[in-house]
Amino acid sequence: MGKQRIRLAVTGLNNTDSPGPGVPFIRGVKESDIFDVHIIGLVYENLEPGIYMEGLCDRIFQIPYPSSGSDELIERIEYIHQQEKIDVLVPNFDAELFSFMKNEERLRKQGIQTFLPTLTQFQEREKHRLPEYGKKYGIRVPASLNLGSLGQITEMEDKFDYPVMVKGQFYDAIQAGNKEQVKQAFMKISAKWGLPVIVQEFVSGTEVNVVALGDGKGNTVGAVPMRKQYITDKGKAWGGITLADEKMLELTRSVIGQTKWRGGMELELIKTRAGEYYLVEINPRIPAWVYLAVGAGQNIPEALVKLALGMEVKPMQAYKIGKMFVRYSYDMIVDLEKFAAISMNKEI
Amino acid sequence: MEIVKEVKISENGFVFNSKTGDSFNLNPTGLALIKLISEGKELDEIKKEFVSAYEVDDLTFEKDFYEFFTLLKHHQIMVQSDPLEFK
After folding, report:
1. What is the pLDDT of residues A10-29, one digit of tens each?
2. Where does A143-201 sit in CATH, by number?
3. Most buried of A98, A131, A187, A243 (most Cβ within 10 A)?
């Protein structure tokens, strides 16, 4: 039987030192036995490495940042759809998800399928709501306080000992060991990601993560736990290894089962010396290290596309334990024409 | 005392704990010791074998053994249900 031809639009082609999940997502889908994919890369910046990677995308379009307004972004997607007939759209940034979730129905009516969490699912796991989330679903989370101003630092000091983690709503996490460092982190993060800035109790332990996919009915379609082996100064995994950790999988199944999570997700956990797991973050999308799951035997990107197309997907249970990924940087030599085309025409 | 089931030990002394993701390199002495432990041998048996195979006295062996054993426990390579048990 021949492969099904699909036209897939993907964002997050920024394979930089803070990589987006677009490139590994595309790699996964390209390895599918059932799909023959035509890739439409959607980029925000004209130097996103995915634009220049040979054989990755068939077409590239620049799209406006969600901060320019949802309508502008969606209208651009509609314009691209007129040219490219998108079957499935996979957004990969936290900051853009809201716009796509809000316009899911509008896109679907035009034939563009997505597979995203609901607004409620998305909002209740937001970092500044994590304590309520933990309480509601019976998950251990670090205590936290939402800072709306520097004046609240005293309140924070009454609650937590140093060090603390200072976090932005969408990205960035800075460890602060004293008041001055909290102030600096607050200024830096609030300037970039707005308010509130979240201060979390520091939980000492090993950072472990799970990439998972929920079918929206409470079933975990795929889940692979990983430990970061090499972490960059931006806190990104530059190397990781799959783990045999049933507790992490149980926790994942519990979160997905209770919330009926729809779409990809990454659970960020801290495992303490005592063997307790603290949920520090839920990222509402596939993480940049998703290709490790593909390499370990669970093609989560392919499964997500199948779910978006309304196909039946059987839960994947097995994966290879002790599979590693090691990221690397690589200088591509590219011609000016591509850069000129994306800069001037906003498409290639 | 027993080696955790998630721990894999290769012939060249590479130890991988698939539950924690930790990996370690054992020197030939450590490898010989961990092999004897994983065979379920008791401390006295292991001591006897070591003292006859290496130039080491009973007291030094026991001191080094407990130190090694503590490391194995610390890194969750080994579990000991009874703290006084050294079987």
Report:
1. 999 998 888 999 999 999 99
2. 3.30.1490.20
3. A243
Residue B86 lies in a domain: no
Name the nearest CA neighbour of A279 among A97, A124, A120.
A124
Domain count of the fold of chain B: 1
Please state the ipTM of this predicted complex. 0.72
Q: What CATH topology corresponds to A4-115+331-345?
A: Rossmann fold (3.40.50)
A247: closest chain B residue by CA: B19
Is B33 domain-assigned?
Answer: yes
- Is A232 in contact with A247 (CB distance < 8 Å)? no
Choice among A19-23, A162-166, A168-172, B45-49 with the minimum mean pLDDT:
A168-172
Give the residue range(s) of CATH 3.30.1490.20 domains in chain A.
143-201
Residue A238 has which token pair?
Answer: 């530059």
Domain for residue B45, yes or no? Answer: yes
Is the Cβ pair A206, B20 closer than 8 Å?
Answer: yes
Cis peptide before A91 (omega within 30 of 0): no
A58 and A38 Cβ atoms separated by less than 8 Å: yes
Among chain A residues, the shortest Cα distance to B73 is held by A273
